[in-house]
Every structure is written in structure tokens, then in C-alpha cells.
Amino acid sequence: MTNIFIVVAILVLFFYVIQKTVTRRDETKDFAYKTKGSVLNSTESAFFNALKTAVGEHGVVLAKVNMANLISPTKTNNKKQWFIAYNRIAKSYFDFVVCDARTLEPRVVIELDDGKELKKGKVEREKLLIHVCKSANIPLIGTNVKLSYQVSKLRRLLAAHIDLIESDKEVRFCKRCGSPMVIKTASQGDFKGRRFFTCSRQPHCTYTENYNVVYELDNYDEDLDIERLD
Predict the structure, then answer these.
(1) Where in the sequence of the chain do the CATH 2.20.25 domains occur?
(2) pTM of the model
(3) Smallest Cα–Cα separation from 136: which of 145, 128, 144?
(4) HSE on the CB side for 5, CA within 13 Å?
(5) CA neighbor of 159 nearest in space, from 108, 96, 93, 87
(6) Quick check: 62 and 96 in contact, CB under 8 A?
(7) Which H helix or E strand runs over 17?
(8) Rounded CA gap, 67 and 85, in Å?
(9) Beta bridge partners of 61
(10) Among 192, 190, 170, 189, which Cα is nearest to 181's?
């Protein structure tokens, strides 16, 4: 019985030493790496270029951004729960993020519909995406590749979240009374801090418009093909 115990102990010690040796070699081994090619495929690249054109100098466009680089789970006393939440976002990404040109703070997240069938993994990612953006209060827009060729419509879609208007060049007149409109900043409510156009004849005329509405000659409302993710 003693001999069997000694043999077992020797075998355990032997495998332990082998394991440590192999692990140490793997950790110090120099592996060769190679590039995987373009970060974006041709469809994504086309949309990325359209997005950059639409945003111009008013924002910075990032692609394939790891979620954990932009957001973090809220603090909790349950460390295990926090790490589980962190690991979920660390393994996922945002298709495109448009950031403030000065501070690089995220203004809006864009999810690109590639037209492919929604498999289980993609469905789970989109559920996480919707929850994360809603929880972190980051606007989320779902769009498709058609806008790669319709930059003006893409600008309209972004206008609610990014300042695409140069205020010193913008001249706008009230649609109700024809008077010149002026720019003001909301001081309270859900839109506190947001700029908007209001009629200069207030309080006699109370007409207002979103500061970021972009007027173009093409018919935007009839053929816009965009769905927001709820």
C-alpha cells in the first residue's frame, strides 16, 4: 500500500513539473502574427466614408469600438456581478460611434444593418447593445447600407445629436409669421443645454425649431428608409 502511494505521489509530482515547464515555455515563446486585412469589409467601408462625409469637421467617426472602451458597469458592492457585467461588454463592440470633435465624448452610436439573417449570437448582441445604450443614455440609431449613397439623408439623421450647422452662417425665418429667428439655449427640462431656433417676435409668436434640422432640396420624408432601434 505504501509503495502504491509513493508511485502515485511521484507521478503527480512528475506531471506537475512537466506542466509548469510547458507553461513556462509557452509564456516565453515568440509567436508569429499576421494582419487580418481591412478592419471593415467593403460594405462597412462605404458606410464609414459616407458617415465621415456627413459629419465633416463637426465630429470624429470611430468604427468597431469595443464597448468597454466607452462605457463601464455602474459601481456595486457585488464585485462578482460587476465583473460579469464588464465581461459582457468587453466581448462586444459598437459598429460606429460619432464623438464630439473637441472632447471625443460619444454623441451617438450607429448600428449598421448588413441585411444578413439574424443568427442567435447577433440577436443577443443587439439586445445587449440596446440595453447598454439605454442604460448609459447614449443615443442609438439603427440604419442600413443604403445611406452609403445618400449623405444628405445621413446628415439629417445625425442632426439631432451633432451640431451640423454653423450658427454664424445660418439664417432662418419663422414659418408662421415670417420674422427672423434667433438661437436660444434650453435652460430646463429634458432638453436642457440644447440649442433651438425661436421666433424673434416672442411672446407674440411662439414658433420654434430644432437647432440641428438641416434643410435640403431633396424630398427627405418620402423615401427615407431608416428604423430606430427601440
Answers:
(1) 166-220
(2) 0.62
(3) 128
(4) 2
(5) 108
(6) yes
(7) helix 2-28
(8) 11
(9) 98
(10) 170
Asked whether 204 and 196 are in contact (CB, 8 A), the reply is no
Cα separation, 228 vs 115, in Å, equals 15
Q: Where are the alpha helices (DSSP H) in 62-219?
A: 79-90, 120-136, 151-158
Q: How many CB atoms lie within 10 A of CB 201?
A: 16
User: What's the CATH fold of domain 42-158?
Assistant: tt1808, chain A (3.90.1570)
Q: Using CB atoms within 10 A of its CB, is residue 21 exposed (0-12), middle (13-18) or buried (19+)? A: exposed
- CATH 3.90.1570 domain range(s) in the chain: 42-158
Residue with cell 463601464: 72
Classify residue 18 as exposed, middle or buried by CB count within 10 Å of its CB (0-12, 13-18, 19+): exposed
pLDDT, tens digit, for every residue of 146-175?
A: 877 788 788 888 877 776 655 555 667 888
Q: Report the CATH number of the 166-220 domain.
A: 2.20.25
Q: How far apart are CA 88 and CA 92, in angstroms?
A: 7
Note the pLDDT tens digit of each residue in 89-126: 999 999 999 998 888 889 999 998 877 776 777 888 88
Q: At what angle do helices 151-158 and 42-55 cross, to 10 degrees?
A: 60
Amino acid at 130: I
Alpha-carbon distances of 178 from 153, 166, 200, 205, rounded to whole Å:
26, 21, 10, 10
Q: Which of 70, 71, 211, 51 is nearest to 147 (CA)?
A: 51
**151 phi and psi angles, rounded to 5 deg:** -60, -40
